[in-house]
Design a protein that fits this description.
The chain is mainly alpha-helical. It folds into two domains: about 140 residues, no CATH class; about 130 residues, no CATH class. It contains 15 helices and four strands. A hairpin with a 3-residue loop joins strand 3 and strand 4. Helix 7 packs across helix 8 and helix 8 packs across helix 13.
Length: about 325
Amino acid sequence: MRKYLLLPLAALLLFSCKDENKVEEKIAELPAEDIKIERFDKIFFESTPAQLPELKKKFDFLFPKEVPDNVWLEKQKDPFQKQLYAEVQKKYPNVDTLQENITDLYRHMKYYYPTVTKPRVVTLVYDDLDMKCVYTGDLILIPLSIYLGEKDELYVGSMDNYHLPEHNPSQILPDIVTAFSKNKIAPIKNNNFLSYIIYYGKELYMKDMLIPEVKDNNKIGYTAQQMKWTKENETEIWRYFVENKLFYDNDPKLLTRFVQPAPFSKFYLGFDNDTPGRLGQWIGWQIVRSYMEHNKGVKPEAMLAMDAQTIFDNSKYKPEK
């Protein structure tokens, strides 16, 4: 019986792949607009004090007027800042591949959002580990010092281990899309669990749209092992959420248990330590994917503006047993 049940699924996946290929063909036909990355990190640390006025003029958006020049000159000489810069140069002697990837990302943005402007892309050295990529509409800032790789000696021991994968180079594109998505997704209006997981499901679906070549585990920031566990246990995760009636629960603890970054998800069961965090986001992603798969006439921008309940009710999402 199982093999017959799989036939409609296989047909659905086949048509889905064909649709995706058609979209990619249309994106490939768009006029080429190459992105050029400006290495402010390199320019700043290799400039002389006499060049600072010229630097401030060219990159005025990086130099708040209230900050005196001596602050920037001290930063150029600061041992830790120089160490950060040295690590960045080792990891990113050039940004050719990143430049190509961001150019491709921009083409996808332009396809789905024709009015989007070509952004200026600037790389930085920054010592705040909480700062990720910034998108302002006409500017993308990439703090390369945040993406040195989870095994870099500057990170190990300075943060909880579950945060380390966030600092891999593979997270640059997903983080740009996260920043881009902020004003593209309808804000959460209901504080129940469903609203939150659908919100993050929409954000992850935008990564499907804009960076389709990126692996799913990198889109959500999981390791390959964490992704394997999640896919193998998708049915059990879903069953737990349904049987415990979590979707319409307003308990804020559900966010720390299943939505926000954490070393693992908290089912309060014996296997918790084997789980990745943010499994609520994962389920929300699968619901949104299923909704779009079963509602071909709905455009992505319409779905992104839609309320969580409508998406949930019409998703037909149900993992295989």
